[in-house]
Structures are given as structure tokens and as C-alpha cells.
């Protein structure tokens, strides 16, 4: 089994087919290779809807984790409910941080997402995911190369030194149009904020409508000099 500890450049060759651009082939390999020792960390954005539907075709009892920071949009929680109804056999875990918002404020001060956004992401996202991944060997992410310059070199299978894991990214060749075509073709539920100028959706304090549609993450952490929460 390919793990972070015994990592070597993989020689698995995935066909990038016209229909799924390799995504279904990658997922079939991943679940056959890792079994129940792989988890999908899903933000329940539109890419997540595509991946959930594809994962369901391969493993309808797959483990999915949502990093519930307690400061997500109500539309995001509504989307999760719709997914639970459509795919009832999926094992969706709402992973909470160790600190409540009140405990975080008492320890680090109010509105940490403004004063120290990296620290806030560490507490409410990175530490919870690290805990989740400590019990397995690999995780799935919805990264696409088109999303931003920091993601343009993402591979199907990646060594993840941050979480000491293997990160599987089935959608690297999908475009924004590919994602939406699939969602509409299969009538998948999705977060209503996507229709209001939010191509990338995170916590409500740190997410605004995109101001540059050539950079789909331009609405994240506006004015903070920050483009990633640190998961990738």
C-alpha cells in the first residue's frame, strides 16, 4: 500500500477519458487500494457535489468529513442536509474543533479570523483534519489545477508532508465549466451562494463574492494577503 511513510513516485497510469477526465478511474483505484483507510475532506462547494456523486458510484458507504468551524454560511449547512437526503448511506462526519468559539475568544481574543487568520484556520481547520487523518493512510480533495496559480501543479496522487498522508485529487483536469455541466446534467444539489457570486465558499467571516472571475478564490480572505487556509 502506498503511504506517506513508504512514498515513492507512483507509476499508476490513469486514463484521462473524455467523460470523467480520469476522476472515476482515480477513485476506483483509491478505494480499492485504501479501502476504509481513506476519507474525503469535503467543503460542500460545487466541486464537492461532483466528487460526492462520483464517490457514491464507487463506494456508497464512503467516509466523508466536513470541517465544521461553527462559522460556515447557513447555505452550506443546508447543502449538507440535501446531500444527506440524496446519499443516505454515505458516512458524513461533522468534525468540530477542540475549542468552541467562546473558548477560542477567551484564549486568543475576539475575532481571531481578523487579527490572526492563520491561527484561526489552524485551530478550526488544520488541527481537526490532522486528527481525522491520523487514523488513515490517504484523503481525497477536490483541488483543480484551474482554481488558482498555487494549485496548477497538483497531481492525481500527491505526497502530503503537512498531514503525513497521501492526497488524492481526482478533479485536477476538470474546468469550472466541466463541473457545472456535470452538476446540471445530473441535477445535483449545490450551495445557493454559487448563484450569488461566490465560486469558492468557506467561513462567512473570510469569504466574499469573487472580484476576479479569472481567479475563483479572489473572494477569500480579501485584504489579508492570504489565499489558502493551509490545508493544501
Question: If you had to describe this structure to a student in words, what would you say it looks like?
Answer:
There is one protein chain. The chain is α/β, with parallel strands linked by helices and 232 residues long. The chain contains seven helices and six strands, in the order αβαβαβαααβββα. Strands 3-2-1-4-6-5 form a six-stranded mixed sheet, sandwiched between helices. β5 (157-160) and β6 (165-168) form a beta hairpin.
Sequence of strands across the biggest β-sheet: 3-2-1-4-6-5
Number of strands: 6
How big a fraction of the residues is strand?
5-15%
Cα end-to-end separation: 23 Å
Which structural category do the helix and sheet elements fall into? alpha/beta
Radius of gyration: 17 Å
**What is the ordering of alpha helices and beta strands?**
HEHEHEHHHEEEH
Model regions low in confidence, pLDDT < 50 over at least 5 residues:
none
Instruction: Please give the count of helices.
Output: 7
Dominant shape: globular
Characterize the main sheet. Answer: 6 strands, mixed
- Helix amount, in percent? 25-40%
Average pLDDT level: 90
